Structure formats: C-alpha cells, structure tokens
Please model this.
Amino acid sequence: MRRAGGREADTERLDSSSARASTAGPPEHAPDYALVIVTLALLCIGIVMVYSASLVVSYAQYGDQTYFFQRQLLWSALGVVVMFLVMRVPYGWWRRLSVIGLALSVILLVAVLVPGLGTDVLGATRWIKIGSFTIGQPSELCKVTLAIYMADWLARKGERVREFGYGLVPFLVVLLVITGLVMRQPDMGTALVIIGTAVTIFFVAGADLLQLLPIGAVGVLGLAALTMTSGYRHGRINAFLDPWADASNTGYHVVQSLIALGAGGVQGLGLGDSRQKFGLLPFPYTDSIFAVIGEELGLVGCCVVLVLFLLLAYRGLRTARLAPDRFASLLAIGISCQMALQAFLNIAVVTSTVPFTGITLPFVSYGGSSMLVSFAAMGILLNVTKFTQESHRHATIQTNVEAAAERRRHWWARLPSARHRAGRPRAVLARS
Amino acid sequence: MGRTVKQVAFLVVLAFLVVSLDLAYWQVVRAPDLSQRAGNPRAVKAMEQVDRGLIVDRHGTVLARSVRSAGGFKRQYTMPSLSPLIGYSSVRFGQDGIEKTFDTQLQGTAGDLAEALADLVLQRPKVGDTLTLSIDAKLQQAVEQAMGDANGAAIVMKPQDGEILAMVTRPYFDANQLDAELQRLRTDPSGPLFNRATLGLFPPGSTFKIVTAAAALAGGNARPDTKIPQPGDTFVVDGFTVRGSNLPRGLTDPTLTQAFQYSCNPCFAQLGLQLGWQRLQQQADMFAIGKPIPFDLPTAASRLADAGADLSRVLLANSAYGQGQVSVSPLQMALITAAVANGGSMPLPHLVTQQATRQSQSITSFEVGNLGTPLDGQVAAELRQMMVAVVQQGSGTQARLPNVQVAGKTGTAETGDGQPPDAWFVGFAPADQPRYVVAVIREHKGEGFDQAAPMARAMLQAALASDD
Model:
C-alpha cells in the first residue's frame, strides 16, 4: 500500500463503513499458517523452558516443582483457545471497540495505582487485586488496546497525519498519558514497548519524519531526566556500562545473565542443565528466560528463538503490506512490531545490549496476562491474514516500477515542502 | 506504505542482528573468560561433571586422572612431587599449574562439534583430552630422592628440544590433600605452593661464570688460555675486597680455563671489570635473562641487576661471579647450560608434548621452539671444554661418572642472610654428545662442590640409565 493520497482516503472511509456493516468485505481465505506455526513453536519452546527454568523456584516456594509449569500449561491452553477464537472475529470489529478498549485500559491503569487495589510486587504496582483475586496486568492489555486505537485513529486521519496540530499533537497527548500511567507503576519495559509500537504505527501511517525527530529528541531527554531522578534507573545505567563494577548489587542481574550465556557457549549445557537457575539468576522463568535458553541450549538454541521471532515479524509485516485496508495494515504493523520489539528488549537485556529493564519474552516467558494478551493480539493479526490480497504485491511491483523516479528521491517527498513540489493540493486533502 | 513497512522491517532485522552479534560475543568470544571468572559458582558445578582428561608421563604412566565420586568427578594425582607442576583442579580452590594452563584441552571443550553433540544426545559426561608430559616419572622419583631433605629445585632437560624430563621443587605439596591442607600450605613460610624451579629467583653464584666467560670469549676479551693479569687471593675494587680464589696452591698464573675450572672469584671480578656493564648485559640479554621464559607454567624473569640499581664497579665485579644483584631461576640456568651443550642454540623449554582425544583418534603434538642462539659454535665449544675441565679436575669432580664424560659448573651462592650458602651445580652429559642437561640448587646446604655436584651426578646417572 502506498501512502494514502486523496483517493485512498476515500477508499478508506468506504472500507471502514463496510467493516461496520460487517458485510461484503475483502474476500476471506485461509489464515497465514506460517504465523500459526511460528507462534506455536515459540509456545512449545516456552513451555519446556518455563518448566526447566522454574522448577527450582517452584520447588523452593511451593514444594512442587511443577507449580509454575502447570499454570503455564493452563495459560497456554487458554491462550491458544483465545487466539483461535479471536482469529474468527473480523478485525473490523476491533475498530468499533477501539475507544472503549483504550478507555478501559486507562481506567485499569489508574486503578492499579489506587492504593488497596494495586498489588505491590517488588517495588512495582502492576497487578490489580480485588479481595484475593488478582486481575492481570493492565499494562499488558494496554499494549494491544493502544495499538488498535492508534491504528484506527491514524487510518481515519489519512494524509492529515502529517499536520502538526491534527496529527502529531493528539498522538503525543494520548501516548504521553498512557506511558505516563505505565511509568507510574513503574514499568519502564512496557512503556518502551508501547512508545515503540505507537511511533512505528505513526511512522507507517505517513507521519512526517521531521516531526518525529523532535519526538525522539524529547523522548531521549525525558529518559535521561528520568534516569537522573530515579535512583534505581541510574543504577541500571551504571550496571549497563560496567556490570562487573557492582556485580553483587546493581550489576547482579546482568552479570548472572552473562555468566549463563557464557556457560552455554555454542552448544549449551544441555536441556535442564542450567546452573544459573539454581537461585542465581533472578526470575529465570520470566524476564531471564532467554538467559536460561542461552545456558541450556547455547547459541544454537538462542538463534532458533531469534529466527522464530524474525519470522514472526516478517510474516506480520508482510501481512501489513498485503492488508486490504489502512486500518488492517496499521494494526498488523502495530501487533508485529510490538512482538518484535518486546522480544528484542527481553533478549537485549540479557545480552547487555541495552540497560536492564524487566519485560517478558512473548509466548515464551511465564505469565498469564502476558500470555493471554499476546495470544489475543496474534489472533487479531491472524484474522487480518485471512484478508490479505496477494494481488497487492503485483500491484505494488507495478506501482514501484512506475514510481521509480519518485522513489529515488523518496525522502524529499516526505518533507512538508516537497509535497507542493509533488503537486499534491494540500487544501483538497485537508477538507476531503 | 509498502516503503515504510520495508523500512520498519529493515529496523527489525538490524535490531535482531545487533542482539545476535552480542549473543555470539558473549557465547563464543567471552565464553571461556566468563566461565572462568572467579566466584562463578556454576563453573565449579560444571567442572565436576566433566571427565577431565588424563595427564600422563612420556611413557604413558598416569599422573592425574578423574574418578567418579558422589557429586561428580574428582581429580586424583599419583605423584605428589609433581603437584607444583601439574597443579590442581579443585571445586573449592580452582586451578593451578598445567591443570590451569591446559584447562580447555583437559575439559575437552576444544573437541569437535559432532562428538559434543553425540555427548549431548547420549547424556555422556564430557571427556577431556589426554595430555602427555615430557616428564619421566621414574626419573622424577630418582631426582626427588637425590634431593634429600634439602629445599631447592632440580631440573633434568633434553638440551635439543627443551623437553623437561624431571623438575623437582622442594618443599612441595600433595594436590590430593588440598582440601585439608591448603590453608596451612598458603601460610607455610617455606612456600610449598611455590614452584622454585620456574618462579624462584636465586643468586646463581659461580654458575654465572658461564655467562661472564661467554661474554669474554665472544667479545674477544679473552681466550681460554689467556692469563688472568693480577691473580691473587683477593682482589680489591673501589675499597671492596673480593675473596674466594679457590686456586690450588702453587697455581699463580691461571688461564681463563683454570680460573673457571677452580672457580676463582677475584679472577672473574677482574674479568668483569674488563668487560664492562654493557658487554655483560648484552650477553645476559642473549641468554634471555630479563624476560620471563615462555613456558607451559608461569616463570619469573631472571635479572642481572635490580631495576634502577646503581651500576657501580663494585656491583659489576660482584655480578661477574654471580653475586651482587644477579638473580636467576633454576630453569634459566638449565637453559644457559643447554645452550652450551647444544653448541649455541637455546631451546624453548616445554612440559606438555602431546594432546590426544581419549581414544587417540586425533593427536596434536606441540611445537618445539628455540629461544635464539646466544653463543656461536666456537664459543660454545670452548665453554664446553672449560666445563669438562671443571668436572675432570676442578671444583666439580664429585659429578664425575665412570664411563661418561660430564661437563659442569659448581656454584656456591651467598644469600646474605647469615645462613649457609646455596649449593649449585649445572651440567650436562655426555660432554661430546649431550643428551641431558641438569641444574640443581640446594638451598642453604653449603658448597656446590660437595652439596650439589654429587646430586647432579646422581641425576645424570639416573637419566643415562633411563635411556639404556
């Protein structure tokens, strides 16, 4: 799909109305089985690794080495069911729920901060607890609802995304509110995934690169400010720069992860043979599960996981390219980037490529909320794959050939002034 | 939109490429270093699960093996006198010696992928490679016996290829008793954990006259038959009196050979002054004094004088006969002797000769090297004759063997702490076709001629007997 011009914006409106009517949409075909297989492969690796990584902690805490494993099996089964159910829901439906979904997420995000409702786990309030009943993590839910909302909202805006007051400002306001609430918990990892996903959708929707750059600058400055003001984040940066300087305290997590990786080497110690999971590696079955994979299955196992996530991202992005309409395309982008970014962050923390932040590895790490939300998101993406239009590819090639000259100077085309040169009447777009 | 999606895809690929490179860095490049980091408890655990390679002597006698015990494999050593060389590999104390230097090979981590995969699938313990040492266990035992109750070090080496056949350092420890003993061993003032042969630095005494004589011969300052100008019982330099003429009564005009043969200190003090610091230093450098010797175990750098020392004439005169600030390791003296025995070239010493997989499917021999040629053939031949004279009718007659001509040099080194001097002997046999070089130091045992020479004799005898 090329960036929306005036005509496309019209088509877009038609698309959305047809989606609302749930009638004659684009032709439906089988979902992308490659994506299903990749997801299930990750899940299988996850189930095995969660068992291996959690048995020590399970036994120590609950006297039953399969405690986490059993729960993970349950969540996995539930997750797969949710995925296949959601896959049957026409993606257009989510559009109608986009505002409600986001509103619900915001309410839950606020609720989690209300004393008495939110449960404090390790200095971060991420869970909602009513009585003895814990309702998952609203920040997990928020990742998907925000992606849906952004995709819907930006698809509607069409070319006007590029307008400062109409595109960028509302985008930033929504993003800041959400990430602000998430950061209050505090949950840096999820906030980063949310920001990354939202910015990617915004970018693909046709945002002005020159407008995005200041966001980046502000974001970096904001992060720097947060780092300076928060003791634990400051410690994490120092631990990132030299984990061994304070290996028993701030650098502990990173050092233990790296030791696990080094121990695994190329071939790994063998499945179940991790030593680091014996009380050395913090959260071996959630945030650090990749370190356990690295230790037991070595570089070979790590590469398998990396390749699976790359495949997932590839199939997701391919879906975005072949999606029947703008919303579907942006939604596919949002979901696949969220998965890829989350996987990247989780792995990059273990390899000390980025400073420490706690985040789960989608489909692999233990965790109910994360599991259900990831599978639901995958279900949505799979539904979109049912409507992909292969012909789009040929059309795109055709257009590519025709637009070869424009391509060569593509970045000019993206500058606000270049638009006039390209001869696109701005006024028409704005009022259409 | 296709274009932006592609750009996003590019970013995703880039990000994953970065993490995979980082992964490879930690899991391949840094893996050995990470797993050996002190305080890495899992390395220790993992170590127990490896059927560590055997260490055998040149005839295949097992010197170290892994035996199954409750928690995994435990190391067992058969010859305590080799503990300072072989070291140990212990869950509690880590590794030392050959066990440390060749840890990778002994762990078998250097093995091929197919075998490692088979181990993984079959749940076999990882089997390390077998290391063959140049040590001859029988000879080692004989040398250890010859050492008696003295502290010190003794080396038997093959001069051509630098293979160490025996290396004794006393006192030593028993690596099997480490768990119970290490704390005591660490604080023992006699230093049983310390390999004197490679790390000990001692004043060489008169054995260093080989270096001084080499400098004089090579520089053309003297011939073997050159008369020493001012022989006498003593020699005074800038108010310092050099004693220890050692010349037989009636010998008043000794040649260089005779001064060497009887180990005349005043004669060598004069010779040293005649050579000057530069020439002596040059010769010492050629013998690789001043640098740690490349070896399978850590070595200490021998030196002619302390760093920043006042290079006075008194110090020069004393250095010429191996006192002053000269300090050398027994291994260094063995190498200097080997250079003479070899006709000039100094071998690279080594202890590990071969690495083989347990079933010997693949055998790697370690390369034999050379530390340069500190002497030319003429000088080496002249020195050899002088060393033969020492044993024939000089200070080293107690090293004489009945059927084989022995060449050598005695040394009696003042240690300056009020204790009896260290007794030294370096030599080789047979003198014309040298097969064995020996170097001995027995600390605080007295004179080299009667405390070290007889031991060298016993060592050479045992060595010569071993190859008959």
User: Anything to note?
Assistant: The beta strands of chain A are 118-121, 124-130, 133-135. Chain A has one domain: 6-393+423-431.
